[in-house]
Amino acid sequence: MSDPQADLFRVLAQLNPAITQQLQQFQQPQPQFHPPDAPPPQSLQFPLQPPPQQQPLDPRLTAKPPPPARPDPRTIVTLPAANRYVSRYIASSAETLTALRALKRWQHAKESSWYAARQALIKRHKERSESDAKLASLLQSLTQAPTVKPPDSEKELRDYDRSVYEKQRLMQKEIFSEMNRLQIPLFYQTVNYGVDETTLNIWRRRLMDLLEDLCDDEVA
């Protein structure tokens, strides 16, 4: 039996050879597309980028401003300014407060010894006065006995007080020298404070009261 499709090709070939060629092309197996060897596709991932490094800030913008410089105590010439200086700088210095307490103990020890010596001198004068009274009573019974002149107790006491005054002056110089070393205002002898000596001494006494309070608070 003949192939109907082959018969159809022969008929068409006779009629139109071009159509026959097109039909033959359709009959031939078409080549299939084979992509070139390639690695399997990988998942789309963005590469990890390191976090941007923060630029260091200008230290002039981030750093705390430095504290104001400690003023020269020789430039402080008023009591209010001296009180502020002591409250701000001296009160927070343990070393200075320790030195001030030692200075205070030394001063009180000196003054106590002078006072005790004066009291002992007064006691001797009193005992001597009682002894002199007994001696005078005895001499009255002896009309021919020589007269004994008692020592001048008041002069002796004045001489002692004068010596203590000189010692106090020397002690004051030593105290002022130590206060200068500790940078305490109002105690510099070469500074002109613009007030009379009486007013300056009052200022110094008030400042000393403040210093003593600070020393007492530290001990407590």
TrEMBL record:
Residues covered by region (Disordered): 24-75
Biased segments, Pro residues type: 32-54
Origin: domain of life: Eukaryota
Family annotation (Pfam families): DUF2458
Name of the protein: Similar to Uncharacterized protein C557.02c acc. no. Q9USS4
